[in-house]
Amino acid sequence: MDTMRGRLLVATSAIESGVFWRSVVYLIEHDADGALGVIVNRPLDADVDDVLPDWVDSVISPGCLFEGGPVAADAALALGILPESPPSDPPGWRRTDGLVGLVDLDAPPPAAGDFRGVRVFAGYAGWGPGQLEDEVAESSWMVVAADPEDLLSPHPDTLWRQVLRRQQDDLRFWSTYPDDPHDN
């Protein structure tokens, strides 16, 4: 099985409502046991300062929590993106793909310059063995390359369209799909 770890799932019109409507999911893990990711374009109306005050200086704007997904919504996880040429991996950081990795929120907050940015997510999205592959085959998701900048977007509300617009094939036409096709 080819792993989709480190890639983005972009919701199609087959997902008509709910937490995954127009979502962009970064896949942290994907193997024969299933998949785990976080929704990167759903900022919450809760500041990091409210739940993790020691981390407020480490997160990139907007300094809010993000809805990572419907699983374990009362737990937090963080993704950190390294600078282009880090001298070493920061303490408490575990690489997922390229310059992106999980940040241990139980460790001391990182030093200035350790990361280009950190995002904190409440909950995550999870799939059992074969479930994600079935959803991709049913055209619920488009699988595209991730850019670390997607995880740091200062405008997460427009990320769905931005990711689709940069695609080099017919997928880019999805970026023009109306919010409600009945209004078209």
Automatic annotation (TrEMBL):
Family of the protein in this entry: Belongs to the UPF0301 (AlgH) family.
InterPro entries: AlgH-like
Pfam name, any one: DUF179
GO CC field: cytosol
Protein source organism: Aeromicrobium marinum DSM 15272
Name the UniProt record assigns to this protein: UPF0301 protein HMPREF0063_11852
UniProt-listed NCBIfam families: PRK00228.2-2
